[in-house]
Design brief:
Mean pLDDT is 87; it is low at 491-504 and 531-560. The longest helix is centred in the C-terminal third of the chain and has 39 residues, at 493-531. A hairpin with a 4-residue loop joins strand 8 (88-94) and strand 9 (99-109). Helix 1 packs antiparallel against helix 2 (536-559). This protein has 5 domains: 8-109, Immunoglobulins (Immunoglobulin-like, Sandwich), CATH 2.60.40; 116-221, Immunoglobulin-like; 227-292, Immunoglobulin-like (Sandwich), CATH 2.60.40; 309-389, Immunoglobulin-like, CATH 2.60.40; 391-477, Immunoglobulins (Immunoglobulin-like). 11% of the residues lie in helices and 46% in strands. The chain is rod-shaped. With 560 residues, the chain is mostly beta strands. Strands 31, 33, 34, 35, 36, 37, 39, 40 and 41 form a 9-stranded mixed β-sheet that branches. A 6-stranded mixed β-sheet has the order 1-9-8-3-4-5, with no helix packed on it. Strands 13, 14, 17, 18 and 19 form a 5-stranded antiparallel β-sheet that branches. Residues 103-212, 223-305, 324-386, 393-473 form the Ig-like domain.
Length: 560
């Protein structure tokens, strides 16, 4: 055994060992020698140096052949340090009278290779103790120790959960150790992403050191504990015509590859992979969908609503009606949730729904009933009503003396659909100064006008004709020299009615005054007649006869 407190040289495996002779060189030195001691204490001399002849001799020791070097100050160097060099070496200085000795202890250290985790398990299964792998650190001296870690924490042995077995093998030729530590481990589900590593602890010339392996993550297999069904869709809502993809997944590892899908209306589950696709779904696809493992042990469900939107427009398409007729219009909506409805006429949004109790020309046009379903992207319906309002031509003629007093403007106001064609004819002398000009045809109405300078009274005829009827209206126009009542050229229906009412009122007043004058005359004549009559009763009868004759004559004159 090595004595404590002796001078020690620490060397690294493969480097040069340098051992100074720690003795003072005495006077009368004859030579110096180095030896090492065998385990049984017997010496083995390895180097000699004479102080007088300055020559060096190395003993024939196979382990140190061509490895030794002894300097003038008796420092011994050994190249390519080996584990076998770990001995007690002695420096000897010899004189004629004395022999001095000083021992030196040599310690050799070798850093192991970086540990590796070999023979790794392909995967780990929960609730099962199995070999995870072996941590191997090679060529260490002295022998090291191996420790296992999980996520940076030391794994301590636990019966039937963590079982660690360390083996140390020495290479007899080199004296180096190889440490092999096997780890048996029972994983849990939480170990799915755990990092396992091992660290070898060894001693070097400067003290204790460690080297860590690369971490390893194992695929941990565990059974499915929960099944989940999902609806894969690009939109948050589903409408008729969409495709539905159902995905079923289990939280086990590896995940299940087959499932049973339960579809509304189907009594048995449909075996499929983890996805099930339905194409062009209809509203009857609304309902609860389920999926389970093939052994029906676990199940999950979800509810799918297939949104729909129906629009019924009555009437629709192209509809032809006569002016003044009634036309009930209804736009009926059937939907899976509240829908927004609005009307458009000729590209302009309407404020209210159309209602026709008495059709007018301005009611004609293209009507669109459009509806959208709130919060359902892309679900929109629309239907169109093309309303045609037909009417026979209606004519109203007016005349106006122009400001120059040299001509008159005659206007033919025409209503009707399809648009009537207008022709003019004139009876009597007078020329038509210009060709007829027509205003824009709007809401079934337009006007045709001519300018004329009549030399005498003439009659102008306006003829309006469409596919329904031919209408003719004439207007007497006095000669330009004769003043007459001029009617305004442009007036709407309300103004026309007001003018007609005023004319009727004037005629009524004139007729009333004439009748009053006639009654007064008759009364006065009867009074004179009665005063001349001798016999009251006879005269009365005669008077009545004469009165009747006079009234007939007066009536005849009035008619004339």
């Amino acid at each position: 055994p090595l004595a404590l407190g002796l001078y020690t040289v620490n060397a690294v495996y493969g480097d040069t060992i340098t051992m100074p002779c720690r003795l003072e060189v005495p006077d009368g030195l004859m030579f110096g020698k180095w030896k090492y001691e065998m385990p049984n204490g017997s010496p083995v001399f390895i180097a000699f140096r004479s102080s007088t002849k300055k020559n060096v001799q190395y003993d024939d020791v196979p382990d140190y052949k061509d490895r030794l070097s002894l300097s003038e100050n008796y420092t011994l160097s050994i190249k390519n340090a080996r584990i076998s060099d770990e001995k007690r070496f002695v420096c000897m200085l010899v004189t004629e009278d004395d022999v001095s000795e000083e021992p030196t202890i040599v310690k050799v250290f070798k850093q192991p290779s970086q540990p590796e985790i070999l023979h790794q398990a392909d995967f780990l299964e929960t609730e099962k103790l199995q070999m995870l792998g072996e941590c191997v650190a090679r060529d260490s001296y002295p022998e090291g120790n191996v420790t296992w870690y999980k996520n940076g924490r030391v794994l301590q042995p636990v019966e039937e959960v963590v079982v660690i077995n360390l083996q140390k093998i020495v290479d007899k030729s080199t004296g180096l150790f190889t440490m092999t530590s096997s780890l048996q481990y029972m994983p849990t589900k939480e170990d799915a992403n755990a990092k396992f590593s091992c660290i070898v602890t060894y001693y070097g010339p400067s003290g204790q050191k460690t080297i860590q392996s690369e971490p390893v993550v194992f695929d941990v297999h565990y059974p499915t504990e929960k099944v989940t069904i999902q609806v894969l869709s690009q939109s948050t809502t589903i409408k008729e015509g969409d495709n539905i993809t159902l995905k079923c997944s289990g939280n086990g590892n590896p995940p299940p590859q087959e499932f049973l899908f339960y579809i509304p209306g189907e009594t048995e589950g449909i075996r499929s992979s983890d996805t099930y696709v339905m194409i062009d779904v209809r509203r009857n696809a609304t309902g609860e969908y389920k999926c389970s493992l093939t052994d029906k042990s676990m199940m999950d469900a979800t509810t799918i609503t297939v949104h729909y939107l129906d629009l019924q427009l009555t009437p629709s398409g192209e509809v032809t009606k006569q002016i003044g007729e009634a036309l009930p219009v209804s736009c009926t909506i059937s939907s899976s949730r509240n829908a927004t409805v609005f009307w458009i006429k000729d590209n302009t949004r309407m404020q209210t729904s159309p209602s026709f109790s008495s059709l007018q020309y301005q009611d004609a046009g293209n009507y669109i009933c459009e509806t959208t379903l709130q919060e359902v992207e892309g679900l929109k319906k629309r239907k169109t009503l093309k309303l045609i309002v037909e009417g026979k031509p209606q004519i109203k003629m007016t005349k106006k003396t122009n400001t120059n007093k040299m001509s008159k403007t005659i206007v033919c106001h025409v209503e009707g659909f399809p648009k009537p064609a207008v022709q003019w004819t004139v009876t009597g002398s007078g020329s038509i100064i210009n060709k007829a000009k027509e205003t824009k045809y709007v809401n079934g109405k337009f006007s045709s006008k001519i300018v004329i300078a009549p030399e005498e009274n003439v009659t102008l005829t306006c003829i309006a004709e469409n596919q329904l009827e031919r209408t003719v209206t004439s207007l007497n126009v006095s000669a330009i020299s004769i003043p007459e009542y001029d009617e305004p050229e442009d007036r709407n229906d309300d103004n026309s009615e007001k003018v007609n009412d005023q004319a009727k009122l004037i005629v009524g007043i004139v007729v009333g005054l004439l009748l009053a004058a006639l009654v007064a005359g008759v009364v006065y004549w009867l009074y004179v007649k009665k005063s001349k009559t001798a016999s009251k009763h006879v005269d009365k009868d005669l008077g009545n006869i004469e009165e009747n004759k006079k009234l007939e004559e007066n009536n005849h004159k009035s008619e004339t």
